[in-house]
Specification:
Length: about 525
């Protein structure tokens, strides 16, 4: 009798497993997570939250075509507004989108390379989104890629973007290609990007999912204990800058230097490799920290949203505008004087990088004119392949112009906190640019600022920040965005320029570089 009961029991267990696996084989929809406080499971509640965030988001003037988006994946109560601020920009730029590549990071599954799934659909409380199974099947055959439904099912970094995507593209027919990234070596980023390029065309949108710094004892990361709010902003902006410039080497170097706890480093790194070059650029849409809500930064996670755009004519925005926009002309330097200053800048940086001492023969080697001896504000900018590598200077001249160029060239190469010190191997790649300042003028009405012509200083209390005239040309920002970013640079609220007490100073600059004087 006992043997018969055991037989019946075994038969039941086998039957249950058989029907379970049969149902799994038939069910090809990835259901949304029921664990974790990510977003409401109620369709109506989720709709209400999304409507709230999208109504609070502003549509911005985005130059060119949106090619990619970077956004956070924390619980909707924390990073929802940051994500919505980026997805809102898709609404007017979604006509051609047919496929969406979603790059996530695996928080649970530990594996090397990339993971796709065999699901036909991904579900949220708002409905199902079809997966482009033809592309996922093709990717699964490529080097670095594998199929794993289990890892994909229990990961939230892609799923938390789906409701925002459904809200932004609600009337569009599109398919998604979810990809999770595990461990990657530095040498893996480029070949993975090269593989993905085969499947990404003019009808594709790429989304990379990441939160920024995870600060506090819970995360095992406390690189500073004083002025945490401002130091966190500075730390985050240090990684955001190379992302906006699509500069992978600086991006990787900064991560190694700081150990920044950015969970989606790999998906964002692959995105940078996909779009690096002169045809694309990044625009910062929003940034804040979870600690901002209660001004408690003992445990804080930072969030940013970024749009990557492609210029319609294939040129970088700075190239387009520089061709059609005349630069401001402060008191003229002769061509000979410009060449002398550029030579001083290069020789000074080379001498300090190689020998740790500034050149001592400037006065005897160069014919220093009276203009070059005047105390004039000056900035020295370093670029590699058109991307910023350092920029330091002073608006008000405290030293003769030629000595200001010498000192600021060295500081731009070795002391700009946004970049590691220039190495000897980089010297040949660097292009020097000198900006000679006109005297400051205080203005009462910021609407009088001439973008691309006026450099701007804002000042409120002890906080101040400056943008050179060429910043507006190189970013394509309108006046509101220009001033918002300037406020952010001064660690002020982004709308502080609209409030009483803000002081505005403008100046112009004579800008010249090595490329035009070689």
């Amino acid at each position: 009798m006992a043997k018969k009961k055991r037989t019946v029991f075994i038969f039941i267990v086998i039957s249950i497993h058989f029907f379970f696996f049969l149902s799994c084989a038939e069910e090809k929809t990835r259901s949304y997570l029921t664990t974790g406080n990510w977003y409401p499971s109620s369709k109506s509640d989720l709709h209400a939250m999304l409507n709230h965030y999208f109504e609070n988001a502003k549509s911005k003037k985005i130059p060119g075509k949106i090619a990619a988006l970077i956004g956070p994946h924390a619980g909707i109560n924390y990073s929802g507004q940051c994500a919505a601020n980026a997805y809102k920009q898709l609404i007017k730029h979604s006509d051609t989108i047919k496929r969406v590549f979603l790059f996530g990071v695996s928080h649970q599954g530990r594996f090397a390379g990339c993971c796709v799934s065999g699901f036909s659909y991904n579900a949220t409380p708002l409905g199902k989104i079809p997966v482009d199974q033809e592309i996922t099947a093709a990717l699964a055959k490529e080097k670095f890629f594998k199929v794993d439904n289990r890892i994909m099912q229990y990961e939230h970094s892609i799923e938390n973007h789906l409701p925002f995507l459904q809200k932004a593209l609600k009337k569009r027919e599109y398919k998604i290609i979810p990809i999770l990234f595990g461990y990657l070596q530095d040498k893996d980023f480029q070949p993975i990007a090269d593989i993905l390029k085969k499947y990404i065309d003019a009808h594709a949108l790429v989304i990379a999912s990441t939160d920024l710094t995870h600060f506090g004892a819970n995360f095992g990361y406390r690189p500073f204990m004083d002025d945490i709010k401002n130091n966190l902003t500075k730390l985050d902006m240090g990684i955001i800058d190379p992302v906006l410039r699509l500069d992978f080497d600086s991006y990787r170097e900064y991560e190694k230097k700081t150990g920044i706890t950015m969970c989606g480093f790999n998906p964002v790194g692959v995105l940078i490799k996909l779009f690096s070059g002169k045809t694309h650029r990044g625009i910062l849409i929003d940034y804040y920290k979870s600690g901002d809500k209660g001004s408690d930064y003992s445990i804080s996670v930072s969030y940013a949203s970024i749009i990557i755009t492609r210029n319609s004519n294939g040129n970088s925005s700075s190239q387009v505008k520089k061709k059609s926009t005349k630069k401001p002309v402060p008191p003229e330097l002769s061509e000979k004087e410009k060449k002398i200053l550029l030579s001083i800048a290069r020789k000074s940086l080379q001498a300090y990088v190689r020998e740790q001492i500034p050149p001592k023969d400037i006065e005897t080697k160069y014919a220093i004119s009276e203009k070059l001896k005047e105390k004039t504000g000056v900035f020295v900018t370093l670029k590699i392949n058109g991307h910023l590598r350092g920029c330091i200077g002073s608006i008000i001249g405290s030293a003769p112009l030629y000595l200001g160029v010498r000192d600021n060239a060295i500081k731009a190469g070795l002391s700009d906190p946004r970049f590691p010190p220039v190495k000897a191997a980089e010297l040949r790649q660097i292009d020097m640019e000198v900006s000679v300042m006109t005297p400051l003028q205080k203005i009462a009405d910021y609407s009088k600022i001439r973008l691309g012509t006026d450099g701007v200083i804002i000042k409120k209390g002890s906080r101040q920040a400056v943008f050179l005239p060429q910043v507006a040309l190189e970013t394509g920002w309108d006046l509101d965005e220009f001033l918002s970013q300037l406020c952010r640079k001064a660690w002020l609220p982004v709308d502080a320029y609209k409030k009483p007490g803000m002081e505005f100073y403008i100046f112009q600059a004579q800008v010249f570089g090595e490329k035009e004087h070689k």
